[in-house]
Design brief:
It contains 13 helices and 36 strands. The strands form eight sheets. Strands 9, 10, 11, 12, 13, 14, 15 and 16 form an eight-stranded antiparallel β-sheet that branches. The protein has a seven-stranded antiparallel β-sheet with strand order 2-1-5-6-7-4-3. The radius of gyration is 25 Å and the shape is globular. It binds FE2/S2 (inorganic) cluster (FES).
């Protein structure tokens, strides 16, 4: 590790092998000796924390602590306190004896229900008052991408529970192998001696971990933040600890063993999400503990980002029809170039297609399929021309011609319909109608119960009105927020508040549109006590608005001032000025680019930050400013 980099040689080697060293360096600015201000209150609210520790034989163990909110607290931005009196007692957990000899710990403080997590590495010590104190060496928020949403429910008397003696073993039992094989998540601890331990979450669709034999597991490594803390630790020290939670029968299965990264593996079914990276975990020994029966879990949903094992088929598509659907929206009908049937898709899917922006610049763009998933003789995609965009939509509108061939891949679904049989409320804003239309076609075909609310700024943006009326009849509602007078369209903004007031809470809501609309739906659902698991959304990020102005960004720590063009996001403007800002999704969803501001008025356009957090932080990748200048705490 050098002064500029928070990474040790193992991490640097893995970043280089993955060809992601540059991204890792850029994202490393998120790693700090101080916990970011926005995370301090988050820590105090948590009822679950995972820690990795090292035993006297250098074996690493990973432990899960459950307790009353407040059992872990931030004393300040460099110290955490853990109150052992406020957690479920597991006296035989290896953590307690390991930290007597080796103070290195890695923590992941995680709220599974919101997919938020904070990683902290540091050293732990027992204070005279009986509490444990962790001194922070490194802290950073982590991407929420592959987290399955669920919530632990702890009853009040749970702290009086005394767990029975754990069972220990070497070879995994059939029951344990079955638990691992059906798991959708686990935690992994790793570490390098005299440096840091790490604790990290791993998740995927059930079955993402393969059991090779009674002593070996195979785990796919999905695309992440490029820092490779866990895999980098494996490169320097193969020891690792895994913990699986049996959410149904309340057991903790802790495994210790060694890990080895496997590069460039054959991955015909896309099980790694395209990285072709796996790691083997060889079990040295295990410990199984029963958790209190009064601890139970509410499951919400799987992450839509979990890679779906599927064969990604390259497609050669021919443009068989182009139709202008509104002033800015064109519909493209695409057929297989060889005239055959196309791969099947689900409602809500998008189609990745290659767009040649110049002779040397080909980009992959994803457009939602609007046509019926019951007919895969063709795909229809609708594209809105974004004058301030990066060129993809302009190419589609101005250069793509009838009969032309375009290369793509089989459709991918990150926005699936769920719970058939319930009432479905479909909400679309502007071009967000595209996946919603495919959902509507499916629900109509299946005779399901549904309604659709489609809101546009002006009548010139209204596409597909006739099709929607045909499919939904009186259950179709249209809104024009600029007050345009159009037959069958309410000259007003969609009133999300009254929509939620008058609907049955067992309904599922699907919303696609501008981030402001998604945030309004999420906030309203929250205030009306709807289950989070019934709210599904897909954002298209936030493109620049005609009204966006140039902004002067002042960097408080360096004193630098950068003027950012209104066509650029704050993130892109800062990156262009060589300011290192970590990012991942660029859609206001992952929280990687969250930055504190100390002056200025922000026009928040993300779906990540809470109302309280927005008072001092913003997502640079999507948010803009209402003031002419803003001062960032960097
Ligand atoms: S990069 Fe994901 S929220 Fe900004």
């Amino acid at each position: 590790m050098n002064e500029q980099s928070p990474f040790h040689p193992g991490e640097l080697a893995v970043q280089a092998l993955a060809n992601e060293a540059d991204v890792a360096q850029r994202n490393s600015t998120v790693v700090s000796k101080h916990i970011i201000k926005g995370a301090l209150a988050f820590i105090d609210q948590q009822s679950m924390t995972v820690l990795s520790s090292t035993d006297e034989n250098n074996h690493i163990w990973t432990s899960v602590l459950f307790g009353e909110p407040g059992f872990i607290k931030a004393r300040d931005d460099q110290h955490l306190l853990i109150n052992r009196q406020k957690i479920i007692q597991q006296p035989s957990d290896p953590l307690w004896r390991n930290i007597e000899k080796n103070s290195q710990v890695g923590l992941v403080i995680i709220e599974l229900s919101t997919r938020r997590r904070l990683r902290v590495n540091g050293n732990i010590k027992l204070l005279p008052n009986g509490q444990y104190e962790v001194t922070v060496a490194q802290a950073y928020p982590n991407c929420p991408k592959y987290i399955q949403r669920r919530q632990p429910n702890l009853s009040e008397d749970i702290l009086t529970y005394q767990s029975s003696k754990p069972i220990l073993g070497v070879e995994l039992t059939m029951e344990q192998l079955e638990l691992i094989a059906r798991s959708d998540s686990f935690f992994v601890g790793s570490g390098v001696d005299n440096h840091h331990n790490d604790a990290s979450y791993r998740g995927g669709d059930p079955g993402f971990v393969s059991v090779v034999n009674k002593g070996q597991l195979l785990i796919p490594d999905y695309k992440g933040n490029s820092m490779f803390n866990t895999l980098g630790n494996f490169a320097s020290n193969a020891h690792a600890g895994l913990v699986f939670i049996d959410f149904e029968s309340n057991k903790l299965l802790q495994l210790t063993g060694t890990a080895k990264v496997l590069w460039e593996q054959v991955d015909e079914t896309n099980a790694t999400g395209g990285t072709k990276r796996y790691w083997h975990f060889n079990v040295t020994s295990w410990q199984e503990t029963i958790l209190p029966p009064a601890l139970n879990w509410t499951f919400f949903e799987y992450s839509p980002h979990n890679p779906k094992p599927q064969v990604l088929t390259p497609l050669s598509l021919m443009v068989s029809n182009i139709e202008q659907k509104s002033a800015r929206i064109k519909l493209f009908k695409l057929k297989a170039k060889d005239g055959g049937i196309l791969p099947a898709f689900e409602p809500g899917s998008h189609l990745p297609i290659e767009i040649k922006l110049s002779a040397t610049n080909t980009v992959l763009r994803h457009y939602s399929i609007t046509s019926s998933s019951h007919d895969n003789r063709f795909y229809e995609i609708a594209v809105q021309q974004e004058k301030l965009g990066e060129g993809g939509s302009n190419y589609m509108h101005k250069q793509l011609r009838l009969g032309q061939t375009i290369e793509g891949q089989s459709p991918v679904n990150d926005f699936p319909l769920s719970s058939p049989g319930k009432h479905h409320i479909l909400i679309a804003g502007g071009i967000g109608i595209t996946p919603i239309l495919s959902m509507l076609r499916h629900l109509s075909q299946k005779n399901e119960s549904y309604e659709i609310h489609y809101s546009v700024k002006s009548d010139g943006d209204l596409a597909f009105k006739d099709e929607i009326v045909k499919l939904a009849g009186e259950s179709a509602h249209f809104y024009c927020s600029d007050g345009s007078n159009v037959a069958g369209v309410l000259p007003t903004r969609l009133d999300i508040n009254s929509l939620f007031k008058h609907r049955n809470k067992s309904s599922h809501v699907y919303v696609c549109g501008p981030i402001k609309m998604i945030t309004a739906v999420k906030d309203e659902a929250d205030e009306s006590n709807w289950q989070e698991s019934h709210i599904h959304y897909e954002s298209f990020g936030s493109s620049a608005l005609e009204t966006d102005q140039a902004v002067e960004v002042k960097l408080q720590k360096s004193g630098e001032v950068i003027v950012i063009d209104p066509k650029k996001t704050l993130l892109d403007g800062l990156l262009a000025a060589n300011i290192k800002i970590p990012f991942e999704c660029k859609r206001g969803e992952c929280g990687m680019c969250v930055t504190e501001y100390v002056e200025g008025t922000v026009d928040h356009r993300d779906v990540y930050l809470t109302k309280d957090e927005k008072a001092h932080s913003l997502c640079l990748c999507v948010s803009r400013t209402k003031s002419k200048s803003i001062t960032l705490n960097i």
